[in-house]
C-alpha cells in the first residue's frame, strides 16, 4: 500500500515538472509571439553598446588633452601666486591673480575636472572606458542622468543630444514591453489557478480550459487584488533590500541608500548621491537600474490600470445631473431672495413664472379623483 502511494506521488511529481505537450503549430505561434519582444530587447542592447563605443571614440582622445589643459593652467597660476612678491607688486596684482585662479578653477570644475585629476599618479587613468560609457548610456537612455560623467567635447555633446532623442523612446518602449509581458504572465497564472479552483468546486466540470481561453481571459480581465498587492510588496522589498546592500558596498547610511534607490527608480537622478563605480562594478549598477525600472513599470501597469478602470466605473455610475438637480432642489430661498437665472423664452419660461404656475395649480388644479394636485411637481 505504501509502495502504491509512493509510486502515485512520484508520477504526480513527474507530471507536474513535465513540460506541456504542444503541436508544431502551437510552438510556431508561441515563437511568433515571443520573437518581437526578443528582437526589441536585443535591439536596445545593441543600441546601448554601439553608443557606448562611439562615446569612447569621441571623448577618450579629447579627455586627455582637456584635462592637461586645465591642470596646466591651474598649476601655472598657483606657481605664480607662490612666487609673487607682494611688497614689490602690491595687493592689486595679487588680487588679480587670485581672481583669475578662482575663475579658471570654477571653469575646470564645470568641465568635469576634479581634484583626483591633479594627482600625477592618476594622470594616465581615463574616465571614458567602454564599461563607464555603458553605464553613462544607461543613465542617459533611462533619463536618470546622475551627471558624474558627461561629454565635454562639442561633437560629443551634439552626438549625445541625437543619441538621447532616439534612444530614450526606444528604452522606455522596451521597459514597458517587458513589464507588460510580465503583467500578462502574472494575470495568466492567476486566472489559470482561479479556473482550476473553480473547476474543482463545480461538479461535472472535469477540465480547466484550454490555454487560449486562459490567455483571452487574462487579457480581458484586470489583475486581481492579490496580484496587485504582490507586485507592490515585491517592489518595496526590492527597494529595501537594495538599500541594505548599498550600505555595505558604499559609504552610505540606510537613509542615503534608500533615498538613492527611490530617486533612481523614479528616474529623477538629482546627482547629490551618486554611486561610486571606481571599482569597475558597472554592470551590477546597470542590472539594479533595469530590474528596478521594470518592477516599477509593472507596478504602475497593474495597479494604475486598475485604479483608472475603477475611476471610470465610478464616473459612469455617478449621476452628476441628478446630483446637481437634487442639490438645487434642496436649496430653499428666503422670502426676500430672488432668482437671477436666465434662459431664453423660446426654450423654457422664466423660473419666476414656473413658481407662479405652481402656486396657481396648487389652489385650482385637481386630479381625476377630485383631489388637489401637489405643487411639488412644479418645483425646480
If you had to describe this structure to a student in words, what would you say it looks like?
Helix 2 (24-82) packs antiparallel against helix 4. The protein folds into two domains: 36-315, Helix Hairpins (Orthogonal Bundle); 334-378, no CATH class. Residues 204-208, 216-221 and 366-380 have low confidence and may be disordered. Helices cover 70% and strands 0% of the residues. The protein is elongated. It is built from twelve helices and no strands. It comes from Rhabditophanes sp. KR3021. This is Ion_trans_2 domain-containing protein.
Structurally, the number of domains stands at 2
CATH architectural type of the largest domain: Orthogonal Bundle
Low-confidence segments, ≥5 residues, pLDDT <50?
Answer: 204-208, 216-221, 366-380
Beta-strand proportion: under 5%
Q: Give the mean pLDDT.
A: 75
Shape: elongated
Record field, number of beta strands:
0
H/E topology pattern: HHHHHHHHHHHH
Q: Report the biggest beta sheet as strand number plus sense, adding barrel if it closes.
A: none
The tally of helices reads 12
CATH topology of the largest domain: Helix Hairpins
Helix-and-strand structural type: mainly alpha
Proportion of residues in helical segments:
over 70%
Highest-level CATH class of the largest domain: Mainly Alpha
First and last CA, distance: 83 Å
Q: How big is the Rg?
A: 36 Å
What labels describe this entry?
mainly alpha, Helix Hairpins, 2 domains, elongated, disordered C terminus, Ion_trans_2 domain-containing protein
Amino acid at each position: 500500500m505504501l509502495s502504491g502511494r509512493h509510486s502515485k506521488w512520484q508520477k504526480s511529481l513527474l507530471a507536474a515538472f513535465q513540460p506541456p505537450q504542444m503541436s508544431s503549430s502551437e510552438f510556431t505561434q508561441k515563437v511568433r509571439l515571443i520573437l518581437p519582444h526578443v528582437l526589441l530587447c536585443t535591439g536596445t542592447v545593441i543600441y546601448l553598446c554601439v553608443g557606448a563605443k562611439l562615446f569612447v571614440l569621441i571623448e577618450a582622445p579629447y579627455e586627455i588633452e582637456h584635462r592637461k589643459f586645465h591642470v596646466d593652467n591651474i598649476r601655472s597660476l598657483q606657481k605664480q601666486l607662490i612666487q609673487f612678491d607682494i611688497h614689490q607688486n602690491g595687493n592689486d596684482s595679487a588680487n588679480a591673480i587670485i581672481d583669475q585662479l578662482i575663475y579658471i578653477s570654477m571653469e575646470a570644475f564645470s568641465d568635469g575636472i576634479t581634484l583626483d585629476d591633479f594627482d600625477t599618479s592618476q594622470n594616465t587613468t581615463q574616465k571614458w572606458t567602454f564599461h563607464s560609457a555603458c553605464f553613462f548610456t544607461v543613465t542617459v537612455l533611462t533619463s536618470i542622468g546622475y551627471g558624474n560623467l558627461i561629454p565635454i567635447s562639442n561633437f560629443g555633446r551634439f552626438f549625445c543630444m541625437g543619441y538621447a532623442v532616439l534612444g530614450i523612446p526606444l528604452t522606455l518602449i522596451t521597459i514597458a514591453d517587458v513589464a507588460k509581458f510580465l503583467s500578462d504572465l502574472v494575470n495568466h497564472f492567476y486566472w489559470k489557478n482561479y479556473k482550476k479552483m473553480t473547476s474543482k468546486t463545480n461538479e461535472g466540470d472535469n477540465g480547466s480550459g484550454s490555454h487560449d481561453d486562459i490567455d483571452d481571459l487574462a487579457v480581458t480581465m484586470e489583475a486581481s487584488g492579490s496580484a496587485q498587492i504582490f507586485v507592490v510588496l515585491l517592489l518595496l522589498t526590492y527597494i529595501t533590500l537594495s538599500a541594505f546592500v548599498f550600505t555595505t558596498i558604499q559609504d552610505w547610511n540606510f537613509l542615503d541608500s534608500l533615498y538613492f534607490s527611490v530617486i533612481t527608480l523614479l528616474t529623477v537622478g538629482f546627482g547629490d548621491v551618486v554611486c561610486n563605480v571606481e571599482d569597475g562594478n558597472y554592470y551590477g549598477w546597470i542590472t539594479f537600474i533595469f530590474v528596478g525600472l521594470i518592477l516599477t513599470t509593472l507596478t504602475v501597469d497593474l495597479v494604475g490600470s486598475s485604479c483608472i478602470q475603477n475611476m471610470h466605473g465610478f464616473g459612469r455610475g455617478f449621476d452628476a445631473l441628478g446630483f446637481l438637480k437634487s442639490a438645487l432642489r434642496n436649496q430653499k430661498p428666503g422670502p426676500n431672495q430672488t432668482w437671477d437665472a436666465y434662459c431664453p423664452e423660446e426654450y423654457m419660461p422664466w423660473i419666476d413664472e414656473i413658481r407662479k404656475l405652481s402656486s396657481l395649480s396648487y389652489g385650482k388644479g385637481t386630479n381625476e379623483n377630485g383631489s388637489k394636485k401637489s405643487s411639488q411637481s412644479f418645483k425646480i
